[in-house]
Specification:
alpha/beta; UDP-N-acetylmuramoyl-L-alanine:D-glutamate ligase; nine-stranded mixed β-sheet; four-stranded mixed β-sheet; 11 helices
């Protein structure tokens, strides 16, 4: 089972208290695809420039990611640079150069329109909706967004959410989107716009899931070494969607398991810069960390 993902492929320059890197592989589509590929096939739709290093394309292909939808356009690849202080939950953007990504218009290659699982990574909500017009009858649609689109294209975003099953955003974006400081009320409002499930990423504090009838909380895996949180949210989404696509089970029990697998994948990503940790990761390590997270919250009931 394959997942269709539409997002960005970028070259990132990142500085944290633990080191810095320049022009390494990044982008929402990249992190998502790499994480999801441990569970399921992935079809990536994105754009890069003529300067995109061949070694990065080779890495993505080595993960059995279908790159038919990876366009190469005249010009330079999307670039982002940022800095983190000791509060690794907050990125300080130093520079964003959209380059070829600025004129990106996703067009699905033949066969991609039959995708059962679709993830709309952090791009213009109008483009997200255009992608949904191109797919035929997906079993599950999930999407991400950010404060830039919430501020600048709120109406288009709310319209897109009417066609989405699962929204995956962070805590601040949840409050901003709903215009409510209370997270529970904010979640209820967002669910009323169409999504059946809202997944709220909370960084080192874990994840909250809201549905019409339930709330679920999962912890983040406690780490001794965190080098670079860039892409952690996209990696979470990749693990989450990858697991669901591999099981084709959309019950609440399965979605809760998917959240933990997403947290596991994010925990590995932050252990090194860019996708370096993903390059050495083995599936047995993923299963072992899944079991450890389960033990974090296991307790006996009252006698």
């Amino acid at each position: 089972m394959s997942i269709l993902v539409v997002g960005s492929v970028a070259l990132d320059s990142v500085e944290t208290p633990f080191g810095e890197v320049e022009e390494v592989l990044g982008g929402s589509g990249t992190y998502f695809s790499t994480a999801a590929s441990f569970f399921s096939g992935v079809k990536l739709v994105a754009v890069v420039g003529e300067d995109f290093p061949g070694e990065h394309t080779e890495f993505l292909a080595s993960r059995d990611i279908d790159l038919t939808g990876l366009q190469s356009a005249p010009g330079e690849t999307f670039r982002w640079s940022g800095r983190y202080g000791y509060d690794l939950n907050e990125a300080h953007t130093l520079e964003t150069r959209l380059n070829v990504f600025e004129s990106f218009r996703p067009e699905l290659p033949s066969g991609y329109e039959d995708a059962d699982f679709v993830f709309l990574a952090n791009i213009d909500p109008e483009l997200q909706l255009d992608v949904l017009r191109q797919v035929k009858n997906p079993q599950l649609v999930a999407c991400d967004t950010m404060n830039f689109w919430i501020e600048g294209k709120r109406d288009a975003l709310v319209k897109t959410l009417g066609h989405v099953d699962i929204l995956i955003i962070n805590e601040g974006e949840t409050r901003q989107l709903a215009e409510d400081a209370n997270l529970v009320r904010a979640a209820r409002k967002i669910l009323s716009w169409g999504p059946k499930t809202l997944v709220v990423k909370r960084g080192e504090y874990g994840v909250l899931m809201f549905t019409e009838h339930s709330i679920f909380s999962a912890p983040a895996y406690p780490l001794e070494s965190v080098f670079d949180p860039t892409g952690a949210g996209d990696t979470f989404a990749g693990g989450f969607m990858g697991f669901l696509a591999s099981t084709r089970n959309l019950s609440e029990k399965s979605i809760r398991q998917a959240i933990v697998f997403g947290s596991v994948m994010a925990s590995f990503t932050v252990e090194d810069f860019s996708l370096n940790r993903m390059k050495t990761l083995e599936y047995a390590e993923i299963e072992e960390r899944f079991r450890k997270i389960k033990l974090l919250t296991e307790f006996e009931g009252l006698g």
